[in-house]
């Protein structure tokens, strides 16, 4: 079994819990997920099976889309609704739509974030959440991420209330913390804030509409329709530059040989998907020392 299961992750399960359950359902150990989701978050979680486990790093690097609810006036230890309240500041004056749109515009494009203490980022060989659980706050490395789109989903012209909530659509690069983005939006509006809800609507080129719940996956397996739970590797890696090769070169690629870069891909920077008769044989990258040459990064023997 080779392919990607477009799982709609339920609330209350870790991403690793989902991998363990899929291993049992498809009776194979060669399973991995692409792009961790917190337990309280639902949404698209690509599960790679068999040869598809070789593409996890590429799928993780693709952009993601989220729908997030932001609460203005309350901040928490974890920057989401799971944490303890750190600060409250009731909203005394209504916040206008234009004020929110201005804040969202300021955070669109390349921005710098500091990962939250309750996150899996490693500092000195230890995850930040481990320090946080010990009550230790340490200096965290900044990271640059890209917000491709940040759109207000509510139609209100005026937002009233002691604590204000509104939803946004976020399209972002790998490594973006939506929790931290919520806090940053609050700062621009002059209030503490946190992310009160989050749904991932797209990841690795997989959209919400393509996803299956665990119940749907189990039903298909029970009916002997196991193949229907998988997306082919090709449909997930469509974002990579494509190089279609001929018979002679295909044999060399299967054996992991170095190959020349075709003219139409000379100026690409990232990985290149090598196809033969419509199937991905391998993913190649530019050779670090030999100009004009590609070297294999992943070869899909069983695809």
Mean pLDDT: 92
Q: Low-confidence spans: pLDDT under 50, at least 5 residues?
A: none
Q: Structurally, how many domains make up the residues? A: 3
| Main beta sheet strand tally, sense and closure | 9 strands, mixed
Task: Name the CATH superfamily assignment of the largest domain.
Answer: Pseudouridine synthase
CATH topology of the largest domain: Pseudouridine synthase
Overall 3D shape: globular
Report the C-alpha radius of gyration, rounded. 22 Å
Report the total helices. 8
**Number of strand segments:** 20
- Element order, helices and strands? EHEEHEEEEHEEEHEEEHEEHHEHEEEE
CATH architecture field of the largest domain: 2-Layer Sandwich
In which range does the helix fraction lie? 10-25%
Question: Span from first to last CA?
Answer: 9 Å
| CATH class identity of the largest domain | Alpha Beta
Q: Which class of secondary structure composition applies to the elements?
A: alpha+beta
In percent, how much strand structure appears in the residues?
25-35%
